[in-house]
């Protein structure tokens, strides 16, 4: 089995997640569009524009073969993304909320067609750096990463305007499933005897249980079962917010239960599933 675990196909969920986002945006008042979000310096309008940027960037790259903005000298990937995302968001402040929604409506199905044509088991067009840096990501993980990004941004808008939703298991469970694939990379600095297992358990309707095992010189996703050397459990809200740094590591640790190998449990509570 791949170090990333079994394939997860999120492609049928994009239209459903997008419709939930469009319904949410369509319900907002002018004051709501100006509300601050958890993303520093960005309001709801900016966050919606960032989602539009994601649509346009992936259509331009995956469909049209356009390389996009170039890296500045000595610019790291996080710095590049921060710069180019901010450039787009600033320019998009000229767009009305109505136009943002219309563009999302029009471009979303075109992006769905790009995902539908993907070979999920072939190497990804864009590697998922928070899952591995020395092994090519499979296509399904790249597509799954994009789904998690759209879902998380919808939740950030909901938080900003105090409108819950989008957390039904059909939409949320695949997000947690993809985020859990960061577990081997999270543990990478901790060599252990062959067969050592670390378990992550997430409670809630969308939750689940995932394991990483040390095999053949690295951590790999593995089907849960048997005795674990380390076990960390938390609720589903804590998990997705930790993975995206909507809450900090110390706050997350105050919410989790951990047992076993303290180095492994400490590492597991730093799990990160975004580029930062």
From TrEMBL:
Any Pfam family: MDMPI_N
Record's keyword annotation contains Membrane: no
InterPro entries: DinB/YfiT-like, Maleyloyr_isom, MDMPI_metal-binding
Source organism, top-level taxon: Bacteria
Keywords for the protein's UniProt record, in alphabetical order: Isomerase
GO molecular function, one term: isomerase activity
Mycothiol-dependent maleylpyruvate isomerase metal-binding domain ranges (all copies): 16-157
Protein name per Swiss-Prot or TrEMBL: Maleylpyruvate isomerase family mycothiol-dependent enzyme
């Amino acid at each position: 089995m791949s170090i990333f675990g079994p394939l997860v196909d999120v492609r049928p969920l994009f239209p459903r997640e997008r419709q939930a986002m469009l319904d949410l945006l369509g319900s907002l008042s002018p004051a709501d569009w100006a509300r601050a979000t958890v993303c520093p310096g960005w309001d709801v309008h900016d966050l919606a524009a960032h989602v539009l940027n994601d649509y346009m960037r992936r259509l331009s790259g995956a469909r049209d073969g356009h390389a996009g903005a170039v890296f500045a000298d000595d610019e790291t990937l996080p710095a590049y993304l921060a710069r180019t995302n901010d450039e787009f968001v600033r320019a998009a402040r000229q767009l009305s909320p109505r136009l943002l929604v219309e563009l999302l409506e029009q471009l979303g199905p075109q992006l769905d067609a790009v995902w539908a044509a993907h070979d999920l088991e072939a190497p990804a067009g864009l590697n998922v750096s928070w899952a591995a840096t020395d092994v090519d990501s499979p296509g399904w993980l790249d597509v799954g990463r994009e789904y998690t990004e759209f879902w998380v941004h919808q939740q950030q808008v909901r938080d900003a305007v105090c409108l819950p939703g989008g957390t039904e298991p059909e939409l949320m469970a695949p997000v947690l499933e993809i985020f859990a694939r960061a577990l081997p990379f999270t543990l990478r600095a901790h060599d252990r005897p062959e067969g050592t297992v670390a378990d992550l358990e997430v409670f809630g309707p969308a939750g689940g249980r995932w394991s990483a095992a040390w095999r053949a010189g690295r951590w790999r996703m593995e089907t849960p079962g048997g005795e674990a050397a380390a076990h960390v459990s938390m609720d589903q809200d804590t998990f997705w917010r930790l993975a995206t740094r909507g809450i900090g590591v110390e706050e997350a640790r105050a919410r989790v239960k951990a047992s076993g190998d303290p180095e492994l449990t400490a590492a597991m509570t730093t799990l990160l599933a975004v580029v930062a």
